[in-house]
Amino acid sequence: MTEHPGDDGEDQWAASLLFDRNPPRDDDEEVSGGGPEAMDADEAAPAAEPLDLDTPTSSGQETSGTDTNAGAKKAAFALAGALLVAIVLIVGSLTVFRRPDPPAPPNPLPPSITAQASTTPALPPGDGDQAVPFTASANCPAGSTPAQALTDTSSDSAWVCVRGASGGQVDGQVLHIDLGHSYLLTAVSVTPGWVAKTPGGKDEWLAHRVVTRLQYDFNDDERTILTQDTANTHGQVTTPLAHRVLASRVTVIILQTSRPPASPPQPVDPTATTPPGFIDSVLGNANGPLPADTSQTSASAPEPGQDSSDPVDATFAVAAMKFLGHEPQ
Question: Which of 71, 123, 251, 276 is buried most, with the most CB atoms less than 10 Å from its CB?
């Protein structure tokens, strides 16, 4: 087959369009066909390795590492922000929903108001003994006066108790004393008979029998009992206790009453320490006979079980009673 010169140029042009390279030339084919020259050319220009799209390049690896660190930092910042928000929410909820504080107790009354509201006046601190306030009650027959009159110091009154119906007039009446709370008691004081309590006041000494002997039963742990003899004294008689008694209630039993003496003994001054002299014992004192002579000046009383028509025997009277002590320390 005869080759035309024009055909060779057309083939090269077509190969450049299809393969984007120059078509093989005849001399290249001849060289590649074999020979030393062709082998040297092949070793001098090795063929390029194919491109692996799955294997990242060095520049691609550096880019990927940079992107990973940036994402970790963003995640750390996001986590820290969420933690901060959670802490703020927890603190806020504790502040809003915490249990409210209990209301403060009301202010106590001032000391002056408290003292006015108290029904039982408190004794001043210290060892000084004073009259202890108390409430008195008794179960005397009709015609008697309230036992609370024993505490009255502003008027001429007395506790007058009916001794029973005619023919059954006996002693042994019971008086109940309530101190309100426990006190340390050191002495008891009684004013037997109806004696005036105010200067120039009413004195009904001769109208009622006089309490001669009393028994005091205290509710302390030792159940102390005190027996008091008044000697029918026209005034206050104070008897000290053998020891201090911590008690809140006292039961008083009227052991004996007597007709009022016309010339009763006067109360003895507890501060006097000089015994009476011989002249005083013979002549007596200006205020009345000595207690030893009381039985000679007392009106005769009926024997037990014997009827008496004398109105003085129908009642006995006690003008006042006191319990001396102080608050326990």
Answer: 123
**Can you list the alpha helix ranges (DSSP code H) found in the chain?**
5-19, 26-32, 36-44, 58-97, 111-117, 278-283, 294-297
Q: Which two tokens stand for residue 221?
A: 């742990």
Instruction: List, for residues 74-107, the tens digit of each pLDDT value.
Output: 888 888 888 888 888 887 777 656 655 556 555 5
pTM for this predicted structure: 0.54
Please give the domain boundaries of the chain with CATH numbers for all domains: 128-267+294-326 (2.60.120.260)
| DSSP symbol at 59 | H
Closest CA to 180 of 135, 139, 141, 129: 135
Distance CA 169, CA 20 (A): 159
Q: Give the C-alpha separation, 209 to 316, whole Å.
A: 4
Which residues neighbour 129 within 8 Å (Cβ) at sequence distance 6 or greater?
A: 186, 187, 324, 325, 326
